[in-house]
Specification:
The complex is a heterodimer.
Chain A lengths: L3 E3 L4 E6 L2 E6 L1 H7 L2 E5 L6 E2 L4 E7 L3 E5 L4 E6 L2 H4 L3 H4 L8 E5 L3 H4 L4 H11 L1
Antiparallel strand pairs in A: 1-2, 2-3, 3-9, 4-6, 5-8, 6-7, 8-9
Chain B lengths: L5 E2 L12 H4 L18 H6 L3 E5 L2 E6 L4 H10 L1 E5 L4 E6 L3 H6 L14 E7 L5 E9 L3 E6 L4 H11 L5 E4 L3 E7 L3 H5 L14 E6 L2 E6 L8 E7 L3 H9 L4 E3 L2 H10 L28 H4 L5 H10 L3 E8 L10 E4 L4 E11 L4 E9 L8 E6 L2 E8 L11
Parallel strand pairs in B: 4-14
Antiparallel strand pairs in B: 2-3, 4-10, 5-8, 5-9, 6-7, 7-8, 10-13, 11-12, 12-13, 15-18, 15-20, 16-17, 16-19, 17-18, 19-20
The chains are: A alpha+beta, B alpha+beta.
Chain lengths: 125, 397
């Protein structure tokens, strides 16, 4: 299991064997508040980096989730259908959104590491 | 994507612009912190760990650390304290005050007895809703509460309509808090024993926790509770005294919005505005009986015509299937795909345990149980017309 990489849109990606696991950060779930629904992409869909491919709905609002890297969706977290609160409780663990087969695994390397992301969040507040 | 969602990055600005609490007022929403006004309770909100968002030109708490769902459920099971000081308060005193106000509303103000409060609508000449408001008869004067996003327009309208000798006194130096929930009466009793006798929509001037207050038994949650107007400089000590009572927790605008939507109550700028008539909004009950005989209020012609022939569209409750919420501005289609209306408020009901919405549909589609589609991000979300409120009111009668 590799380290987490982060986007400026507050998604994280973790390379896990042949797949990349994607979710939203603790900062993002905290800003969103209680998550009540997620709209997940269809398996098999090809997505480009930066493409909106999921929606997370909190009590307050709906927010787009973007693919941090390009690839093909190979799995979605079906547990979120029954229990979207997983995203609030374990944003970087059981609250993951979807997995994709990266088109180019090196794309992830260009994203922020934990320290750079923390500095980015700090700079936004 | 229909462009109504925004990226998570938008939360770095204090929340996306489609956030319920940030746009709900319909009026101009200040975009920069510099322009935002603060209520007398701003320091307390920060001390309590609130997340502040812009709302109708004010920095307001959208939630505290407990979160919207917990705050909402606490209000339905115990008692929640809301800061609603951003709303406009004013007084109207003198001979003919009630008659003067009746020139702007179809509500029966002259028939409002001392010690009673009433909900009413300010109507436009074309029969739209200029604002909704609360008016209380304090014996020697009327006490008015109007929406934050409309207060400047409302007060200017009133001032322009007042005959010589009557003056509207704005009350920017007063805070307004709402204590709401089944334990509200129990919580306030040690601070003001006389309030137990106040019935729903009753109003009184009394002393609560040593602070002179105008108190009404009313609210915006569907629960029993009180709205309490106090001098701004005593507001924080007063709010702290309420929060020190057993069972009382602070709640923000997020919970206020989900509570009022479960209770089927309109939000100005979303569910009612200058294009919607009182009849379309299913608020005909706010029109006084005498007023419906005299037809002497702004927009009476449209109201009369709609009451005689039925309005073209009606405000209804909507229950989407499953868990996915449909937000304001979502298109509503009939079973055959015809557009028949639009969602005006929508979200997730924590007490309901599912999504809920209100919106306007053509009269033929307004019957309870009618199957409709809500077009969410290009997909048809099945929904049914449902009776309002979604959660029964529990007022102290």
């Amino acid at each position: 299991m590799s380290e987490l990489k982060f986007t400026k849109d507050h998604e994280w990606v973790r390379l896990d064997g042949d797949a990349a696991v994607i979710g939203i950060t603790d900062h993002a779930q905290n800003a969103l508040g209680d998550v009540v629904f997620v709209d997940l992409p269809e398996i098999g869909r090809e997505v480009a980096a930066g493409e909106a491919c999921a929606v997370v709905e909190s009590v307050k609002a709906a927010s787009d989730i973007y693919a941090p890297i390009s690839g093909r969706i190979v799995e979605v977290n079906s547990a979120l259908g029954e229990d979207p609160g997983l995203i609030n409780r374990e944003p970087t663990g059981e609250g993951w959104f979807f997995k994709l087969e990266p088109k180019d695994p090196s794309e992830a390397a260009a994203l922020m590491d934990e320290g750079a992301y923390a500095a980015f969040v700090e700079s936004q507040s | 994507m229909d462009g109504r969602t925004e990226s998570l990055r938008s939360w770095d600005r204090g929340g996306p612009r489609n956030e319920t609490a940030a746009t709900a007022a319909g009026g101009p929403v200040a975009e920069t912190d510099q322009a935002l006004l603060e209520t007398p309770l701003a320091a307390l909100h920060r001390a309590l760990g609130a997340r502040m968002v812009p709302f109708a030109g004010h920095a307001m708490p959208v939630q505290y650390p407990a979160g919207i769902i917990a705050e909402h459920l606490h209000c339905r099971s115990a008692a929640a304290l809301f800061d609603v000081s951003h709303m406009g308060q004013a007084e109207l005193a003198g001979d003919g005050a009630a008659a003067a106000l009746e020139a702007l509303t179809p509500a029966d103000i002259r028939g409002l007895k001392p010690g009673r409060q009433r909900y009413g609508l300010l109507t436009t000449m074309l029969g739209g809703v200029f604002d909704d408001f609360m008016v209380a008869n304090l014996g020697n004067r009327l006490h008015l509460v109007v929406n934050a996003s409309r207060k400047e327009q409302d007060f200017a309208l009133m001032e322009a309509a007042l005959p010589a000798g009557l003056r509207l006194r704005r009350l920017p130096d007063r805070a307004l808090v709402a204590l709401q929930g089944p334990k509200a009466a129990e919580a306030i009793a040690p601070l003001a024993p006389d309030l137990a006798a106040l019935s729903f929509m009753g109003v009184t001037e009394t002393v609560v926790a040593g602070v002179p207050a105008v108190v009404s038994r009313s609210g915006y949650t569907g629960e029993d509770g009180f709205e309490i107007s106090v001098p701004a400089e005593q507001a924080e000590a007063f709010a702290r005294a309420l929060l020190a009572q057993p069972g009382v927790q602070p709640a923000g605008l997020g919970a206020r919005d989900s509570l009022r939507l479960e209770a089927g109550l309109c939000l100005y700028g979303n569910d009612i505005d200058e294009t919607t008539s009182p009849v379309e909004a299913a608020l005909t009950w706010t029109i006084g009986k005498r007023r419906r005989m005299a037809w002497d209020f702004p927009g009476a012609e449209r109201v009369r015509e709609e009451l005689a022939n039925g309005p073209k569209r009606l405000r209804v409750g909507l229950r989407p299937e499953g868990r996915q919420p449909a937000r304001a501005h979502t298109e509503i289609q009939a079973a055959d795909g015809r557009p028949v209306g639009e969602v005006t408020s929508g979200g997730f009901g924590p007490s309901l345990g599912g999504p809920m919405a209100m919106g306007y549909v053509t009269r033929a589609e307004a019957e309870d149980g009618t199957a409709l589609s809500l077009m969410v991000r290009g997909k048809a979300l099945p929904a049914r017309v449902a009776p309002l409120p979604f959660i029964p009111h529990r007022y102290a009668r």
